Each structure stands twice: as C-alpha cells, then as structure tokens.
C-alpha cells in the first residue's frame, strides 16, 4: 500500500469524519507523549554539565560563550547587562550573592557591580560530544556493555528454549495432574519478587555463582509468563500434525524442534522482545548478585556516575540514551511478530 494513501485515508471516501479527526488527535498526541521524554533525554545528553541543571531549562543544547580577557588567567563568560541605560556585552569576573562583578572584555578596567536579575547569558548552540567519548575512553562502559549483551543474549536464548519445552509438554501431552501443574506455574505470578529474592540469592551463593554473570542469568530463565504465552499459542497448532509426524517415525524432540518451534515463531518473537527488555533493563537482581566492577552490567554500571554529593547527569543521560539503541534495533526487527503472536495466543 502507498504510504501517502494509507496515512490520508478516511472513514468515508472523499469526506473527513469526526472519527478521523479524533483518531489523528489521539495518535499524534500519544506519539508526542511517548517520544517527548526520549527526545528530551537525547537533547540533554548533548548539553554541557552546567546547562543540564540550568533553570529555566532549554530544549536545544547551548553553552555559555567565553572570552579571554587580558589580566585574567581563565576565560570569562559573557553576559548581556544593562549599564547606564545601555545594553552591553560584558564578562563576569565573579558573583557575590545578588551582585556580579563585570568588566568590558574589549577594554577591561575596574569591575562594575551589576544586579544579577538584569543579566542574560550569551549562549551558542554547542554539542558536548565529550559526554559520549569520556565514558567510552575513561570509564568501563564498554565492559558494562559487553556484560549486558552477554546476559541479555544468553538469558533470552535459554528462556526461549526452556519455556518452549515446558509449554510443549503442557499443551500437547496429556498426563495426570497436567492442569494442576499449569495452575501452579501460573499461580507463581502472584508471589511478590521480594519474597523469592532472598532464597534465590542464598541458592546462588550456595552453588558458587555469586559475583558471576551466570548467577544473574540462571534464576531468570524460567518464567510463568513465558510458559503461559507459549502454551496458549501451541494449543492452536493442530494435533494431527504431531500424529502424522509420529507415523513417519519422527522422534519427540524432532517434532518439537522441526514442527512446533517453526510454527510458534510469532509467539517466540514476542517472548524474545519481552525477554530482551526484561534482561536489558534489569537493575535490582544484578546489583544484588554482582560485586566486582568488571562484572557489572550496563544498568548497574550507570549507577557508578551517581556519587554521594554529586550526580554526573551529563554522563548518565548520554549513556542511558546510548543504551536504548540495542533494544530499539531488536524491536524494529521483531515488531511485525507482536500483533500476530499476541492475537494468536489463547485461540483454539
């Protein structure tokens, strides 16, 4: 379909209905609400550190213009001030309370006291690329990124395999207590995470996986949500396919691997997206398990930029915005399966 005709089509051909207007308002407004925080974070990640905390805030990344003034060791910031009824550009030497000491950068003389309420900073558009380059060169960001990619990839792969096998058994095999087992699995969704966190950590310590990336991966592999999603989708697969494969002497694993998994691809894609989001954004469990800085995942490593008395917001925003890219790429590749996978879940 032509994109232009798709976006300009109306409920009635040749007429614009009130529902068309409401739909466009709803879609545009919703898109704006969702993208505004991302846009703000992206633009703020390009601002110098001093501009992030400036009030009132500005949308575009700007920085104060500085100029070298004879007689002063460091460049001074330029401000627009009113002196003797005239608007002039002057350099600020120091600020004391509500008064600032200003000098003329072209002909520096004795400082002039100016009320700060009548001052306006001289700014220019500036892209602070050091917000991205400094963490990559001076800190362990690449190590954090590598650990997060490893945890996300391995945990997602194991999640798909383990939960698909459990869903296959619960959907295509009839045995005593199969419904009870499924109900017990689903009922674990009602257990708060805080209840199982301490026992899970004690198990991890007992098997020697504390401060290890595998200690972050293994406890999160089994998921009742994943079992429910895949089981409900597998129920839509005709049992006649399995019976025909058994007649052709196919093993149970061959049936699962070559018939069930390909047909369950939409649901697996949905689960893969969810799993990537869960593991990539997970903060609390890696924070509890990992102690060594070289084992930190990205979310835990970003916490290192937050000190006791100061927070390096320019680094946090830059690295947070950069960490959105892998999840966005995964979503773009798998988004076409979301509707198919969710719509088919629960249909029989």
Automatic annotation (TrEMBL):
Localization in the cell: Cell membrane
Any single biological process term in GO: transmembrane transport
Keywords of this entry: Cell membrane, Membrane, Transmembrane, Transmembrane helix, Transport
Superkingdom of origin organism: Bacteria
Family, per entry: Belongs to the binding-protein-dependent transport system permease family.
GO cellular component: plasma membrane
Membrane-crossing segments per the record: 21-43, 149-170, 182-207, 213-234, 255-278, 313-334
InterPro entries associated with the record: MetI-like, MetI-like_sf
Topology versus the membrane: Multi-pass membrane protein
Limits of the ABC transmembrane type-1 domain: 145-334
Entries under Pfam families matching the protein: BPD_transp_1
Keyword Transmembrane listed: yes
PANTHER family associated with the record: ABC TRANSPORTER PERMEASE PROTEIN MG189-RELATED, ABC TRANSPORTER PERMEASE PROTEIN MG189-RELATED-RELATED
Name of the protein in its database record: Permease component of ABC transporter
